[in-house]
Amino acid sequence: MAQVIVNGNFVDRSEAKVDIEDRGYQFGDGVYEVIRVYNGKMFTLAEHLKRFAKSLDSIGVSHAYTEQQLTVMLQELIERNSLKTGIIYMQMTRGVAPRNHAYPAGDVQPTFVAYTKGMERPVENLKNGVKAILTEDIRWLRCDIKSLNLLGNIMAKQKAVLSGCYEAIQYRGQAVTEGSSSNILIVNKDVVITHPSDQRILKGITKEVILQLCRTNQITVEERVFTLDELADADEVFLTSTTGEVMPIIEIDGRKVKDGVPGSVTRKLQELFSKEIEKQCGPLYNL
Ligand code: DCS
């Protein structure tokens, strides 16, 4: 039976319970993280814990656990579930209180939940690339917080799915922001361009790893707003995310990106990214 964490305790999944007046359930009043696990080891754990803490601070929820405590709990969760390749999902909400928009007064214990899920690397999509659609970014202006409120994101993703596509690329006016659950990067004349990490996008950890790898491998990076026209003219387009890694986008709204095959800079970054995973988590066999 799968083991999950509820408020610091390990319980069977079937026994895990959260109150119907949990503010995460009623208001989406909480934050989350998705962490990749390769060979039973967490990839970029420190970065995820740091972003989790930052998201909690942004909405004024107390941390409940130190980074050290979280690390120990999550490692035990992996072991109890014998997880090799997959993800950890974790979320913290403001806790349980009688329904009222205002934050509850006094010391309410935040609700913490974490569980694992087996998930292979998306090998076929990484090799062949995926299709995307364009959709207007209708979300709020604090997309830097990894909030449980994902209605804008899931509506965008559903639109992509209904079009037989993997991702929805969002834009505000002429500016391309990010995917529904990923960051978007373009390559133009060997320069990697991506939206700056401000309040309009999530500062993706995979993107940050990629930008760092670019810098140490003499690939020029521009963190600046780029337009729909630049996207349409790009030599290469790819997305980054914890689950999707570095994934080529080969078609947008039915139009091929250049020749319609993954580009050379994207390929190179995939290689460098795999090496980075191997550095932290040991050998990968499936790409
Ligand atoms: N932008 C959004 C809106 C996201 O939801 C995500 C990841 C990213 C960017 C990429 O960030 P990471 O590189 O740190 O993953 N979303 C997680 C999710 O909801 N499922 O998997 C990843």
Question: Could you name the key traits of this structure?
Answer:
287 residues, alpha+beta, D-amino Acid Aminotransferase, Chain A, domain 1, D-amino Acid Aminotransferase, Chain A, domain 2, 2 domains, nine-stranded mixed β-sheet, six-stranded antiparallel β-sheet, 8 helices, 29% strand, binds ligand DCS
Q: Share of helix among residues?
A: 25-40%
Q: Poorly predicted ranges (pLDDT <50, ≥5 residues)?
A: none
Number of domains: 2
Spell out which ligands are present: ligand DCS
Q: Can you say what the CATH homologous superfamily of the largest domain is? A: D-amino Acid Aminotransferase, subunit A, domain 2
Strand content: 25-35%
Query: SSE order, as H and E?
Result: EEHEEHHEEHEHEEEEHEHEEEH
- How far the N terminus sits from the C terminus, by CA atoms, comes to 30 Å
How many β-strand runs? 15
The coarse overall form would be: globular
